[in-house]
């Protein structure tokens, strides 16, 4: 008589948050998602999030904590984009102010669903705020892994690192601190736009936070795409999903909010 495995938190995590792992592997489907991800426009970001979540389940992650964090971040983006798109469509009167409730299929007297652009915008920002908060946990795991890599390199070489290794560590630490700065500025903005009436009463402060975020994001992107000063070598990123959409989403939401 076989016994079923005990229901643990890890199994619930895999069954619910990691449900994208059941997506069948198909070259045609993967090709379609890659192709759609090349299209411009935020309305297609949702396809990129699907691709990220599926790839996340197929690629081993450095730690279990990072896997859980990125799963939650992916789900938060699945909430953000539909709310953001519905808000945009409602503002431009592309969709009506009310739509029939699914319950009306069973009960004709069911009340229709109201689509208020302000409410939709608030919920989209709340999903973004969830992502930003989770990013602090992600950065904490990034820091632990970077410190471990640094100790391992120094221990294995008697504390003497090559110029290339020093440059690589410096690049990674620079990316870490830049990411921390961007996320620290994003948090008050995300909370500000997640609360009706706003959290920050001084609009100049909102502009300053947005400017710091934009400059820091530009600097990070510029450094990430710079040609290496030494001979090219295979260097894998510290903790990057197969498609680095988490940071793209977090960095692009400021623009979508109109700052």
Automatic annotation (TrEMBL):
Compartment(s) of residence: Peroxisome membrane
Gene Ontology CC: peroxisomal membrane
Keyword vocabulary terms for this entry: Membrane, Peroxisome, Peroxisome biogenesis
Annotated TM spans: none
Residues in the signal sequence: none
Pfam families per the UniProt record, alphabetical: PEX11
Domain of life the protein comes from: Eukaryota
Single GO biological process annotation from the record: peroxisome fission
UniProt KW Membrane keyword: yes
Protein known as: TPR-REGION domain-containing protein
Biological source species: Mycena sanguinolenta
Source taxonomy: Eukaryota, Fungi, Dikarya, Basidiomycota, Agaricomycotina
